[in-house]
Automatic annotation (TrEMBL):
Organism: Saccharomonospora amisosensis
GO molecular function annotations of the record: inositol 2-dehydrogenase (NAD+) activity; nucleotide binding
Pfam families cross-referenced by the UniProt entry: GFO_IDH_MocA (PF01408), GFO_IDH_MocA_C3 (PF22725)
Record-linked InterPro entries: Gfo/Idh/MocA-like_OxRdtase_N, GFO_IDH_MocA-like_dom, NAD(P)-bd_dom_sf
Name the UniProt record assigns to this protein: Myo-inositol 2-dehydrogenase/D-chiro-inositol 1-dehydrogenase
Length: 332
């Protein structure tokens, strides 16, 4: 198959490399708002080049991978679907709930699949945890603890258009909590602090945050995130049950050291960023998209799935700003 790729920034270029190695993919056409960057990426990876989005669509790819800035996501997803092209779009679907609902409404009933990029659904540890819950191995799951800890902040110019820590970062935890447990979040209480760079506060954002979530079966989930985890990139999901407890993300590269006597530090090195930590998941995710394009399977993560995680992030942001519990029904 021949796939199109819109966006050749860091995540787009990483996706391009993966797509070029997938057995089902014969060729990739890349485009970007910066044609020179797209041309350079195409040349470096031995791929086709399109001078712009219009040209990319005119080449009629079998599927489209969207890895552009968020504000371009809705238009590209809608255009692809209305043209009959299955589309993979990095999260989020749109910058806000209204935009996400608009995409869902305008692509509904078109018979064209849309897959949203929540790569943790393809991570071996998260898959194993989901199976353990479904098979009842943990007994009654009463508590979850989820963390996404970045080793260093993104560029200052990124923060004002990121959507904030909950929508940009913790939304992955919210999707993982829903997907692994099969339950829905019904209420959130969240807090955030700023003790790092001033540009977070200037953008109305925080650099560290935590949320207590109540699931629809009264399970408690704790989610925390920071832009300042100097030990390294750290993503974990712990599930505590009445029969057993398990953890995703505990390995020799986990940047968390025990200070108990005789316990060695993790062998390391720590993961420097998300592309390293989830490399295998990204490969599986895009391979799944080729199955979607081929018509062999439905989308494993729909815009409606992404919307549910976005609702949780929205509730957390509202809770943080108003310092009160917020029900998910309030932001729907």
């Amino acid at each position: 198959m021949r796939l199109g790729l819109a966006g050749t920034g860091r995540i787009g270029t990483a996706h391009a490399r993966i797509l070029g190695d997938l057995p089902a993919v014969e060729s990739v056409v890349v485009a970007d708002i910066d044609p020179a960057r797209a041309r350079a990426t195409a040349a470096a990876l031995g791929m086709e080049f399109a001078a712009g989005i219009d040209e990319l669509f005119s080449m009629r790819p079998d599927g489209l991978v969207v890895a552009t800035a968020t504000d371009a996501h809705p238009e590209l997803v809608i255009r692809a679907v209305q043209t009959g092209i299955p589309v993979f779009c990095e999260k989020p679907v749109a910058a806000d709930i209204a935009g996400t609902l608009d995409v869902i409404e305008r692509t509904k009933g078109c018979g064209v699949e849309v897959q949203i990029g929540f790569q943790r659904r393809f991570d071996p540890g998260h898959l194993a945890a989901r199976s353990a819950v479904a098979e009842g191995k943990l007994g009654r799951v009463h508590t979850l603890r989820a963390t996404t800890l970045d080793p260093a902040p993104p560029p200052a110019e990124y923060i004002p258009r990121s959507g904030g820590l909950f929508r940009d970062c913790s939304v992955h935890d919210f999707d993982a909590i829903r997907w692994v447990t099969g339950r829905e979040v019904v209420e959130a209480y969240a807090l955030g602090t700023n003790r790092g760079a001033e540009f977070f506060a200037l953008a109305g954002d925080v650099d560290t945050a935590a949320a207590v979530l109540t699931l629809d079966d009264d399970t408690i989930a704790l989610a925390s995130a920071t832009r300042y985890n100097g030990a390294g990139y750290d993503v974990r999901l712990e599930l505590l049950g009445s029969r057993d407890s398990i953890a995703v993300g505990m390995d020799e590269r986990t940047p968390l050291a025990s200070v108990e006597p005789g316990i060695p530090r993790p062998a390391g090195p720590a993961y420097p960023h998300f592309l390293d930590r989830f490399q295998a998941a990204y490969v599986r995710e895009l391979a799944a998209f080729t199955d979607v394009v081929a018509g062999n399977s439905p989308s494993p993560c729909t815009p409606a799935d992404a919307l549910e995680a976005f609702y949780v992030a929205e509730a957390c942001e509202l809770s943080r700003r108003q310092r009160r519990p917020v029900s998910i029904s309030e932001v729907r």
